[in-house]
Write the structure tokens for this entry.
Amino acid sequence: MSKVTSILLSGVGGQGAVLISKILTNGFVGAGYDVKQSENHGMSQRGGCVTTQVRFGDKVYGPLFGKGQADIMIALERMEAVRCADMLKPDAVVIVNDYRQDSSLTASGLAEYPEGCVEAMQENFNTVVLNAEEIATSLGNIRCANVVLLGAACAACKELNQSGIDWESVIAATVPPKHKELNIQAFRAGMAAAAQ
Amino acid sequence: MKHLMSGNEAIARGIYEAGIKVASAYPGTPSTEILENAVKYKDSVYCEWAPNEKVALEVAYGACIGGSRSICTMKLVGLNVAADPMFTAAYNGVRGAFVIVSADDPGHHSSQNEQDNRNYARHAKIPCIEPADSQECKDFVKAACEISEQFDTPVLFRTTTRVNHSMSLVEFGERVEIQAPPYVKDAQKFVCVPAFVEGKHNKVVQRMKDLAEYGATSPLNSVEMNGSAVGVVASGAAYQYAKEVFPEDTSFLKLGLTYPLPVALVKDFASKVDKLYVIEEGDGFLELEIKAAGIECVGKELTGEVGELNPQLVAERVLGTVFPTKTVPVKPVGRPPALCPGCPHRGFFYTVSGKKDYIISGDIGCYGLGSTAPLSAIDAVVCMGGSFTMGMGMAKSFMMEGYTDKKIFAILGDSTFFHNGITGATEIVYNKGNVIPVILDNSITAMTGHQENPSTGFTLQGDVANAVKIEKVMEALGYQNIIIVDPNDLKAMKKAVEDAAASEVPACIITRRPCVLLKRLNLKFGKCVVDVDKCISCKKCLKVGCPAVAIRDGKSWIDRNQCVGCTVCAQVCPVGAIEKEGE
């Protein structure tokens, strides 16, 4: 079977994983790949974990993949990176946002937010770490942190940067016109951060 | 040109292309987006939110008696509500096509159980169609309409979360325009009275035999012969997983029309392979039918009946494939869904939580999240609209057992009130239940992503509607003490609960404040801030269970990215350490 690349986006409801997956799928569809994408709706919008899966290749069957199958992970929150670690192939490339968002359990003091999430990922995987919220805030809008992470992923992953896809054009065509400049800046900042 | 779309968007497109004229639904994950997308074609397809699934099914069935192609959509448990008319519609048959979409939820991503509604097809004696991707979601709607009309039957269109919510490429077609002939009365066909039952039932039995034969040549079922060693019978998303992981020389019988089982086709396929697997999600539904036909096969003993499948699980359980993974030494903490920051339900739950003498009979909706820690306010939840009546039964049990120390509050939301709550409210007042009905009115059907309902004043098609007033309904039913309260005002909320509990006449509470996520109101939010010098680290603010409130460095801390300034945490602070900015 021809090669299928499986990308996992993990985060918390409201962090904007949906926009990342929309940009990715638009890029792959435009480049002529077969594409399937899955996300969890419903309860995940109420502060729960959100995962979105994007797969592309010449022919993609499963809209979903399981443990040990992801080639790339973009984690929008550091504890969520750890939660999804078993979804990764041992040689997966991981982009981790060094950002903490408490869960209702850690916020209310019923459990401790774990230490060492980023380090655990670095020790086990080819990992790029950045603080996307900081970068996004420096660009003037914290809400573009998701696209910062996408930029980092496009810099770090050969499946994305050798695909012949002009990601900046895809972003421009995907986001509302008034947010175009900001998101392209965010994308470039993410690429630069990953290159460091 | 192909379009990347979800199964639900594709079903909506299929509704349009199939020439369907009437579509009715009650929202429920994973089915909700079907009608949210179908309404884009409202010039061609009348679309509505019905008060509940039974109403939706009856409206669609009535439309088919009127002569139009029609469809109703619902989540898995919704079909339990709608089952009554479905079973008899199966006897009466159709005039225009009549399609019932049941969106099942293996993996219980957002449902209270994992029931496999293909069993309803067998039970009601109607055909079942299962699409496996978005293209089929679209195409099979038209095929379902044709089967419905050709065989004079309702058709069950069964999807699963993965098919509804995953996106894949779809090629569009043209809409077929069908003009229904003028209405002609046909009471013999459409009136279900005992005198007509035997004849109808005989027809149904024959129809299922005809459909089983039709299944052998139906384009919805297809054979891919690649080798004679291993054959796989599969349907839905499970077909995709099997196709991905089985070796290339595996042969496939892909079933799109899964009930009645096309026995001759399966027998023929089975005879051409040495070993037969059945890969399906949910119950061993096909497997049972195949085994009942005397065909040897292996299925659920390997794949399992619980949860959702994926390629890795199918490969591991059936083929023994190992997918290496790495274990990281850090243990993540759970992230259960919670009431949003600023959620108007929080004030009510905070008020009743931890009160030993209060029992909270719960329901399906965002307010189900009042069951999670630290609020932990709910005693029982069973189904949509079940809270009032379940509370009633508890009250009668306590009465008979002689327990008098408990006060029962039964809660549901505005949409659930119209779904099924009114009958429960009637029961309580009619049979004198010692229960306080509480309607948590946030002016929208919130959990499923903001759909209109009879109290919001708008329809699915965007027209202004008569906004039914919940308090007027309760008044008409005989409630004499109707307490309407802003749940974010904790003092008023506490008084409302105590007044209702002490009421000598039938009392109910309506907590009224719109969902904070409701965009059309343009709600203006602020931020609450902590004065760390005043904070005494008592952690009382954590008791409200707000995701925006935490302890950092021993002091109360509010996440500015999440806070909307509802002030519920500020109201519980004993030393006034939390204030709203600018006030």
